[in-house]
Amino acid sequence: MPQSNGLQRNDFRYELKVPYQRAQFTEFESWLQRAGLHPVKQYADRLIHSVYLDTAELDDYQDNVSGISKRGKLRIRWYNDATDNMVLELKNKRGKLANKLIITLDNPGGDLPFDRATADRLLRSNERSMAVARQCSLYPSLHVQYERAYYEVAPGIRMTIDRNIRYQSMYPIRSSRTTTSPVDVVIEFKYPTNRSKKAAELLAGMPGRVFRHSKYVIGVDTVCAL
Questions:
Q1: Which residues of the chain have pLDDT under 50?
Q2: What is the phi/psi pair of residue 96, to 5°?
Q3: Helices 127-135 + 116-123 axis angle, to 10
Q4: Which residues contact 99 (CB under 8 A, 6 or more apart)?
Q5: Local structure of 10: helix, strand or coil
């Protein structure tokens, strides 16, 4: 992933998501053993926080609900309690392919982007993110937090497991409480385009159904009063 002066960009890659309820996830774990797959831990687990930014009309949400092939999302993200180390992520989707542009934000005070004024100030802390802020009027719409575990199932084929997903409404009314997601676990496989054939071989017979699953859409549907 090339990076320079607080800017990172990755190439388009496949991102396949499979949501599970608890019993289904137990079946998935059994399938891994039967398939002879032994995921290797890559990193320590992390608590991920994402605050999604959207227009007053929730245009990004509407695009995702509509299933538009070329769509995007904006979010401010930080890990664990490191609120002084936030980034702006611009996620772009092209069908099952996705990439991210990541911009480091200056936030030495560790302020939380739960209101429009703070989010706008964070965007304007970096010249590149300032350009995003100028494009449209953005509001913090949803706070998502979850625990993520990182694995590799084969060279170049990564797997993440997200648990304890919780949502907090930011817009149109900010709520002080979080709500548990209706989905217990989300498995995601990520790999470059040149590993698609190998990934298809490894994942053949996997229980569950791969389909378009967005934490942002699920979260807005769950806690935001539209």
A1: 1-4
A2: -90, 0
A3: 130
A4: 9, 10, 11, 12, 13, 91, 92
A5: coil
